[in-house]
Design goal:
Layout (H helix, E strand, L loop, with lengths): L2 H40 L12 H10 L15 H27 L3 H6 L4 H30 L4 H29 L10 H14 L1 H11 L29 H8 L6 H5 L3 H7 L4 H17 L1 H7 L7 H9 L6 H12 L10 H12 L2 H8 L1
Helix pairs in contact: 1-2, 1-3, 1-5, 2-11, 3-5, 3-6, 5-6, 5-7, 6-7, 7-8, 11-12, 12-13, 14-16, 15-16
């Protein structure tokens, strides 16, 4: 046994999850202090308790104020033994697989297997190593996102261990299948079997769910429900860069919280984002209000109404319901964007336009943002 291989396998399999669990506790304490500061702003002793209840803020407190004690009947945080039980399968899978892969790369005939005669076992090890690298990187990404979202749990660590193991097994089966089909003759001219297997095996490890869906979709199994791929042409997502104030760097930061489209942002809890991100609460509220307008009217109508002074759904509300802003010609312009086509010159009744806007305002996420 190579001591260096054992050390590397130990670091990959045990030190990483332990560090992630320790960071989770630090994040919990830090965000708890922010929530206490918010509580001082929202809760005033001059108001009755019933009038001080803000559901959005209560959800934030419910997520982070988790006691570690053992009071009976009280919601508790995960105990130390639960983390230990969850880390064990992750340690077992990662340590054994990483040690075997490291020993394989240090084995001298590896170069001959890669560039010369690639026997089934050597090709299988190439696929296993690539799939393990992809699966481990995907696990690190998932653990990082779970810290940002504060949803790290023992079950997640067990699920990641299962994904890595499944990816390794699937990659090994894939390598044997490729060898059985192409043998030692290789792929078309200029393409080597080991190189193709390594790339596809890495994709299997990094995108395990997509690999399984592809495998089932291309199979000829009867009575197995498959996806209707034609519906994907209707599922175009609007990126959050459309929102005024969000650039690619901010989008990458928001993606850690699973916010990548305007619909995700429109339904997000602004107070939760304020606690979990470095952005200001008023800035976040403006982003959410813009996203709600985009999710309601669409990206094309939203950008067209910018020149009318309508940036958020609340601007749309003022244009229709506030007597200081309500004007027939303005309502007609808004109505053409909401009810007509791009070059539509038809007129719509003010009552129909107002009713349509009121219908868009009667949304639980809009009511929540208004309450905040």
């Amino acid at each position: 046994m190579d001591p260096l291989s054992l050390v590397v396998a130990f670091l990959l399999s045990l030190v990483v999850p332990v560090i992630v669990i320790a960071i989770r506790q630090t994040v919990k304490l830090h965000r708890g202090e922010i929530i206490q500061d918010l509580a001082a702003v929202f809760h005033s002793a001059k108001e009755p308790e019933s009038e001080r209840l803000i559901p959005s803020f209560e959800f934030v407190k419910f997520k982070y104020f988790v006691p570690t004690g053992l009071e009976r009947g009280q919601r508790q945080d995960f105990q130390v033994w639960a983390w230990g039980v969850a880390v064990f399968p992750f340690f077992l899978v990662v340590s054994s697989t990483s040690y075997i892969c490291i020993e394989f790369f240090q084995y001298p005939p590896f170069a001959d297997a890669l560039f010369g005669t690639h026997a089934p076992v050597a090709l299988c090890m190439i696929a296993v190593s690539a799939a393990f690298c992809g699966g481990y990187l995907n696990s690190i990404r998932a653990l990082t996102q779970s810290i940002q979202n504060f949803d790290l749990s023992p079950s997640l660590i067990v699920a990641l261990a299962t994904q890595i193991f499944s990816a390794v097994v699937l990659a090994a089966i894939f390598a044997y299948a490729v060898h059985a089909i192409y043998g030692t003759s290789g792929l078309p001219k200029g393409v080597g079997v080991p190189q193709v297997v390594a790339v596809l095996a890495f994709a299997i490890g990094f995108f395990p769910d997509a690999a399984q869906r592809t495998l089932v979709g291309r199979s000829k199994l009867k009575n197995f429900k498959r996806e209707n791929l034609s519906v994907y042409k209707y599922t175009l997502a609007t990126p959050v860069e459309l929102i005024d104030g969000i650039d690619t760097e901010i989008r990458n930061r928001l993606s850690d919280f699973h916010i990548e489209t305007t619909q995700n942002l429109a339904t997000a809890n602004p107070l939760m984002l304020f606690v979990e991100t470095p952005f200001g609460v008023y800035q976040i509220m403006d982003w959410v209000a813009q996203a709600q307008l985009c999710a309601s009217v669409g990206a094309e109508a939203m950008t067209s109404m910018w020149k009318l002074g309508v940036r958020t759904l609340f601007d749309l509300e003022r244009a229709a319901l506030d007597e200081r802003c309500r004007h027939p010609e303005l309502l007609q312009s808004i109505g053409r964007h909401l009810l007509g086509h791009k070059d539509d010159k038809s007129d719509f009744s003010p009552e129909a336009i107002t009713a349509n806007i009121q219908m868009r305002l009667d949304d639980p996420h809009v009511h929540r943002l208004r309450q905040i």
